[in-house]
Write a structure and sequence with these properties.
Layout lengths: L1 H5 L12 H5 L3 E6 L2 E4 L1 E6 L5 E7 L7 H9 L2
Antiparallel strand pairs: 1-2, 3-4
Length: about 80
């Protein structure tokens, strides 16, 4: 729904089973409403399946839109 609303030309992931959260080690020990939450993560994977960019941290530490656009231009 979010992808369609914003017209994003790439797939987004909703990880309700926490499989990717655990695989990329982005669990945060901060609990929110009794649940362990995930950190904000930006992962760019090329068409070969290689991770070409990885950043994790709290939401306020995430890369800017401008930085992400420059990274995506290199893909």
């Amino acid at each position: 729904e979010f992808q369609e609303r914003w017209g994003l030309p790439f797939p987004l992931l909703s990880d309700v089973d926490r499989i990717v959260i655990e695989s990329y080690n982005v669990s945060d020990t901060t609990e929110k409403n009794g649940k362990i939450i995930s950190l904000s993560a930006n992962v760019v994977i090329n068409q070969k399946g290689d991770i070409i960019y990885y950043h994790k941290g709290h939401y306020s530490e995430r890369p800017s839109t401008k930085e992400m656009i420059e990274i995506l231009k290199k893909v």
